Amino acid sequence: MNAQELIASGLLEAHVLGEVSPEERALVERMAASDALVRAELDAIEQTLEDYARSVAIEPPVRVRAAVLNAIGAGDGKTIPLQPSPKAMSGFSWLAAASVAALLISAAGNFMLYHELHGVRERLANLENERTQLAQELQVQRTSLQESQNELAVVFDPRKHVVPLAAQKLDPEARARVFYDIATHEVFINVMELPPPPSGKQYQLWAQVDGVMVDAGMLNMNDPGHVHRMKDAQNATAFGVTLENEGGTTTPTLTALYLLGAVS
């Protein structure tokens, strides 16, 4: 708790009136000793309470003064204790009690308001965190939906030729298909089954153009099952997938051929 929070909490007023727990008293005294703002506020509260008590005090009636002087006697040098009249004492006690009660109610109200405000702030912070989390989840869902729509647009585009890539001897279970647009030369691939590449290796797509296999891009095996855009290929007649060193190569390693398919 900092100085401003302590002042706003009402603990200083309660401390002056002696209505605090030992832990709260220790907190106030520690803060007052180390923070000039808290010390000044505590002094001001004490002075205000003292000024208020003085302002509501009742001056004894004249007859009380005369009775006291008569009781003393003239010139006898006798000193007797002076006691306020019961009426004056009762009036002062009632007003003092009223001022103390008012301060206690004010301190309690401030203390309750502080805790209520603290609770409201916590609830608002929690709601803001939930709103941010929901917004992030919604953005992820929107992105996923957009990706799915883009993939469906490729799969169901009648202008694209579907080129099934057949498994080769290295892995009879391997499966993939290429979506090839002859007019725009766009190439997409959907890998359905390929074994994870060994460390330091990557799958590379090749397009056969004029009898030569040219690089069509590296496969993204971190996101299998989706449709991925590859490099454009003009007048391609076949596609193949080989396992190459990480980063790819300029010519395919035919002994590491996993998939092959011709454009119909």
What's the tally of helices?
A: 6
Number of domains: 2
- Label the overall shape: rod-shaped
DSSP strand tally = 8
Terminus-to-terminus distance: 76 Å
Give an overview of the whole structure.
With 264 residues, the chain is of the alpha+beta class. Helix content is 48%, strand content 22%. It folds into two domains: 3-136, no CATH class; 160-262, no CATH class. The protein has helices spanning 3-9, 11-16, 22-34, 36-56, 62-72, 86-155, and strands spanning 160-167, 175-181, 187-193, 201-209, 212-218, 227-229, 236-245, 257-262. Strands 5-4-7-8-1-2-3-6 form an eight-stranded antiparallel beta sheet, with helices on one face. A hairpin with a 5-residue loop joins β2 and β3. The mean pLDDT is 81.
Descriptive labels:
264 residues; alpha+beta; 6 helices; 48% helix; 22% strand
Give a short synopsis of this structure.
The chain has 264 residues and is of the alpha+beta class. It is 48% helix and 22% strand. The protein folds into two domains: 3-136, no CATH class; 160-262, no CATH class.
